[in-house]
């Protein structure tokens, strides 16, 4: 009996530590976070209207924890596919943090995609900003920590997972960084008005094309920045589809006075079509 208990204990340890080993046996990756530099610019900070109070009660999601490559834990808002699936969508927050607006958007995508696991990754380790000043400080997450959290999320999804990414603002840039970090497991990337990666050698490692959604009136992530990104992607031998709306930064955030309902609806449909095609659902 004692021997059987020991064997069962060893099996339990082996099963529960699988994701951790897959995550933590690799060095911590650094990812780009140019949003941190932009946050030192007062005019860029002022582009962000402070979010209106909002509370969202999820019907299907729950907060989960997972091990990260730096040996600590991270968390995320998980909406698990009703049927077992290796298809995953990682959702990346605006610079405010993983607030209820992002959870609502994650659940909307979950309901529309069907049979896809959706994980809204918490890049601020539980912190959420309600003012511009707080957000400009929280966005200064060390690049190593951002990379470690992403590696942990990829390991949590598992080695067979096919992963698409989507994010807004800070999360738009993180969506692209996650797509780069995911290697061959990456099947899609949507970035809403996020800071693009400028290193062409890093862009060459992408395993997917990129859908970029931007505002023509955005003075932070300007049309010139978008044009440079298109040029760099072409030089890297990668495809990109850009949709430019006559709208300001963060036009898809309903808490933003610059919210553009029509552009948001159109962008959402384009995003949904892209994700369905790339996740094959």
UniProtKB/TrEMBL annotation:
Residues 80-278 form the Dienelactone hydrolase domain. GO terms for molecular function: hydrolase activity. It holds the Pfam family DLH. Keywords: Hydrolase, Signal. Residues 1-21 form the signal peptide. It comes from the Bacteria. Transmembrane segments: none annotated. PANTHER family: ALPHA_BETA-HYDROLASES SUPERFAMILY PROTEIN (PTHR46623:SF6), CARBOXYMETHYLENEBUTENOLIDASE-RELATED (PTHR46623). This is Dienelactone hydrolase family protein. It comes from Larkinella rosea.
